[in-house]
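Postdoc handover notes: sequence design on the structure in folder B. Input tokens:
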């Protein structure tokens, strides 16, 4: 076991990690200059993080694509470790559960090593997880990082409520994972993971509201590089905003939630109602939009989406929106209409310009960012943070 000291040195460690995340690679001298720290201080911290396996040194050839790594030679470039996985990333989805080992520097988002159908009971899920773990070549990690939907008490690592995966609520979800791996388990609400991932992929931008459309509709807020957090474990539930005139029943038990219009399933139901002779598939829906444009039924849904997002911006006082998920996969006319709908309802649009962008999901990068924040150099830590040197 290796102990990372906390207290006075934690702030400088976080600063070094954040800067290296932004730069990708950097020299000790470059880090010291950019952070305003002395070279001896940076040298001491980087040597410690190299020994722990957080940083590694690379030569010029490695920066240009070679995987050859030479450790311990002064003056070489530093980067977050890529040559060995430190975390196990997991995504709990409505249809499937995904798992993959994660290095501290994520290069690809689409590949997951193991996946299995998400069962409908805790016992079946636990059994499927054990079978998936047997396929993993690596058996020990610094932590198990899990992206989960619904209301999550991240401090207690519990899922409080999940409208689309009800069996997870109130179950010993983390305990089931610990029966397979003895490493620390961190549960993070999925939209919060996506917000962290977007910030990691695009550091240096201003504060933003991230809204994700998929199996449900959710959001997260990132301010000054940090996720908005509150002791009450509920935030970002944009999908459960009621839409006037909408009579569809929601999995949360209410009627008329935005999610019943804007999720994948809801959009396909609306499309099938408007075009009963068409195939009820996402491809057919996308083809229809490309051919017909934004039809009245879709316009009403996009207006509801825009009103919900605009309301959140007005409350939060933000002017930047990052939209991920299924809406970004449709023809450009859909995103253009949604952009106009957001602008119509946002007060800031009367005085300045909103920044509304679509982006891919950076889930893996978000999981790694959460692991660094909570396991390597947490903001609030006990006297020591213990990490296995693997």
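Designed sequence:
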């Amino acid at each position: 076991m290796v102990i990372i000291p906390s207290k006075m040195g934690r702030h400088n460690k976080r600063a070094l990690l954040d800067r290296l995340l932004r730069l990708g690679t950097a020299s000790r001298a470059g880090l010291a200059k950019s952070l305003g720290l002395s070279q001896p201080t940076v040298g001491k911290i980087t040597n410690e993080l190299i020994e722990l396996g957080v940083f590694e040194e690379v030569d010029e050839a490695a920066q240009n694509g070679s995987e050859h790594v030479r450790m311990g030679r002064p003056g070489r470039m530093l980067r977050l470790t890529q040559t060995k996985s430190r975390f196990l990333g997991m995504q709990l989805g409505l249809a499937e559960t995904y798992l993959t080992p994660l290095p501290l520097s994520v290069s690809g988002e689409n590949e997951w090593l193991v996946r299995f159908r998400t069962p409908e009971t805790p016992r079946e899920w636990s059994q499927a997880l054990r079978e998936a773990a047997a396929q993993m070549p690596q058996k020990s990690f610094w932590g198990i990082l899990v992206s989960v939907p619904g209301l999550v008490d991240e401090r207690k690592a519990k899922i409080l409520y999940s409208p689309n995966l009800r069996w997870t609520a109130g179950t010993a979800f983390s305990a089931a994972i610990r029966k397979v791996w003895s490493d620390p388990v961190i549960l993070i609400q999925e939209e919060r993971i996506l917000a962290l991932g977007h910030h990691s992929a695009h550091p240096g931008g201003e504060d933003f509201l991230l809204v994700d459309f998929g199996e449900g509709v959710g959001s997260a807020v990132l301010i000054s590089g940090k996720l908005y957090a509150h002791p009450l474990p509920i935030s970002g539930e944009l999908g459960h905003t009621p839409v006037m005139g909408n009579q569809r029943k929601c999995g949360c038990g209410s009627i008329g939630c935005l999610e019943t219009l804007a999720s994948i399933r809801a959009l396909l139901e609306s499309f099938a109602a408007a075009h009963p002779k068409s195939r009820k598939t996402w491809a057919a829906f996308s083809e229809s939009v490309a051919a017909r444009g934004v039809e009245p039924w879709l316009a009403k849904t996009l207006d509801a989406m825009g009103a919900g997002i605009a309301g959140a911006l007005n409350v939060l006082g933000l002017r930047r929106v990052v939209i991920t998920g299924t809406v970004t996969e449709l023809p450009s006319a859909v995103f253009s209409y949604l952009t106009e709908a957001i602008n119509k309802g946002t007060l800031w649009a009367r005085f300045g310009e909103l920044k509304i962008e679509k982006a891919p999901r950076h889930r893996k990068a978000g999981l790694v960012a959460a692991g660094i924040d909570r396991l390597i150099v947490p903001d609030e830590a006990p006297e020591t943070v213990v990490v296995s040197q693997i």
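Context for whoever picks this up: Confidence is low (pLDDT under 50) at residues 1-6, 66-70, 381-390. Don't rerun without checking with the PI first.
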